[in-house]
Design goal:
Length: about 250
């Protein structure tokens, strides 16, 4: 709609002022940009309202699971503890050491793990999975743990982020497509992370923050985000395609 309005204004101004008048061109461009931003802000606001309604529904779902007993501890191990121990393993801790420190026998741990996985698999509301994800990231001690915690809090409260991005969106897409294209080429995606000085937990936390940032501001920043994603994808598709060709030639 606003593009049609811009077109009509452009024709009118050009007819009145002349098609080579730089002031006219600038006026049309400015008008079009203002219209686009207004429409993007309106759409973003609607999306954020829907996200807020979804979060309220999710919190109600979690509360209902608490009442139903689905979030009750399994053999004395709460969802928060189970998630924290899993997070510790992802960050490099040895399971046997963790279990010994919490006086949990291996057989008991396996029963508890099976039960929590079963509860999540039969939960069509994803309330348990959400609660687990929040607890998992709350236990993180990675580089971006504070950003993940802030993203989870902002998501729950349906508000803007208070912490600035730890990396620019262009770097985030670089990190993401470096792993994705490495895996497609049959290479270890974790090495791509490690080469950047990042762990799986670091990327998990970073992804939590950046995904919310994109969702929260994606309509307003659509052109930048979309261009950054396409550049990163093309860059790493080419990188690993060339690398795969070179490796094949050496065999």
């Amino acid at each position: 709609m606003f593009k049609q309005k811009v077109g009509k204004v452009a024709h009118k101004l050009v007819a009145e002022e002349g098609e080579h008048d730089e002031d006219v061109v600038h006026a049309v461009d400015s008008f079009g940009e203002a219209e686009r931003r207004t429409e993007a802000l309106k759409l973003q606001e609607r999306m954020n309202d829907h996200a807020g309604a979804f979060q309220r529904e999710m919190q109600a779902g979690i509360a209902a699971k608490v009442l139903s007993g689905e979030l009750a501890p399994v053999e004395g191990i709460s969802l928060d503890l189970w998630a924290a121990l899993n997070a510790s393993m992802v960050q490099g801790s040895i399971l046997d050491d963790l279990l010994q420190g919490h006086a949990i026998e291996r057989e008991r741990w396996e029963r508890v793990t099976a039960e929590w996985n079963l509860r999540m698999s039969r939960d069509r509301t994803f309330a348990i999975t959400t609660a687990y994800g929040n607890a998992f990231q709350a236990a993180s001690k990675g580089k971006f743990s504070a950003h993940a915690k802030e993203a989870n809090a902002a998501r729950t409260e349906n508000r803007d982020l208070k912490l600035p991005p730890p990396v620019e969106i262009e770097e985030y897409y670089d990190i993401m497509y470096d792993q994705t294209c490495a895996a497609r080429a049959g290479l270890d995606p974790i090495k791509a992370l490690n080469d950047r000085g990042l762990s799986i937990m670091d990327f998990t936390d970073l992804g939590c923050y950046m995904a919310y940032l994109v969702h929260r501001t994606g309509m307003v920043n659509h052109e930048r985000f979309s261009a950054a994603q396409k550049r990163a994808e093309a860059k790493y598709v080419a990188k690993y395609s060339n690398l795969k060709t070179a490796l094949g030639a050496q065999r």
